[in-house]
Amino acid sequence: AQSVTQLDSHVSVSEGTPVLLRCNYSSSYSPSLFWYVQHPNKGLQLLLKYTSAATLVKGINGFEAEFKKSETSFHLTKPSAHMSDAAEYFCAGRGSARQLTFGSGTQLTVLP
Amino acid sequence: GAVVSQHPSWVICKSGTSVKIECRSLDFQATTMFWYRQFPKQSLMLMATSNEGSKATYEQGVEKDKFLINHASLTLSTLTVTSAHPEDSSFYICSARDDSSLGYEQYFGPGTRLTVT
Fold first, then answer.
1. What 8-state DSSP symbol labels residue B70?
2. Best of A2, A23, A33, A38 to disrupt the B interface by mutation (most B CBs within 10 Å)?
3. Which of A47, A52, B44, B63 could form a disulfide with A59 if both were Cys (CB 3.0 to 4.6 A apart)?
């Protein structure tokens, strides 16, 4: 079975400092992995996805994530946080059933 | 990019009434659509998978007679919450899968906030 675990329910960073949001996956086969962002009362916006091509994936708004099979991780990073990055972030995986399984989410707060 | 719309974006209804939420794929055809429910500060919970021209597949614990899903065309799926109660108040998000895309891309609607009084 496919599952994803987001290790932090809440992360706070200062504006201009790096962002790290952690995600681990569990799968018996190479999954497709995704990061989504959700602003209050909005739907989900795709930030980036991994589909077994390059292990370092670049997304929108300066975000990137690295797929590490040895660590079963797909952590999301950004070199410098912006106030507009404050939102809820979801890691998701998709296995053979072509259904997305979501992590529990990480609330990112950006402090001025 | 592909766009999925939902209507309404916000609805308030009285307990015991029914509410219909529409999900449309605007620029692609979607054989498969998904309905999710999201409680405050929580993740998305898949309620059901909607298949065009056939019955929806419901996740365990989701009452199919309460959450009626109709996927009558390749661009429209509807979720009807029947005999709504306050505990049905939630944020409902639909998603449409573009099977014509190489990666079976899934696109999300903006969500519908349901409040049952």
1. E
2. A38
3. A47
Q: Which amino acid is at A37?
A: V
A46 three-class SS: strand
Name chain A contacts of B110, Cβ cutoff 8 Å: 42-43
Given a contact cutoff of 8 angstroms between Cβ atoms, the answer to whether A36 and A90 are in contact is: yes
Looking from the CA of B27 toward its CB, the CA atoms found within 13 Å total 5
Instruction: State the residue for tokens 């015991």.
Output: B16
Q: How confident is the model at residue A96 (pLDDT cuts 50, 70, 90)?
A: low
For A10, the enclosing helix (H) or strand (E) is: strand A10-14
Confidence of residue B81 (pLDDT cuts 50, 70, 90): very high
Residue in the block written with tokens 């449409």: B96
Q: Which two tokens stand for residue A36?
A: 């989504």
Query: Do residues B56 and B69 make contact, with C-beta atoms less than 8 angstroms apart?
Result: yes
Beta strands at B90-98 and B32-38: parallel, antiparallel or unpaired: antiparallel
Taking only the tens place, the pLDDT of each residue in B12-50 is: 999 999 999 999 999 899 989 999 999 888 889 999 999
Cβ of residue A5 closer than 8 Å to a chain B Cβ: no
Distance from CA of A108 to the nearest CA of B (A): 12
B111 min Cα distance to partner chain A (Å): 5
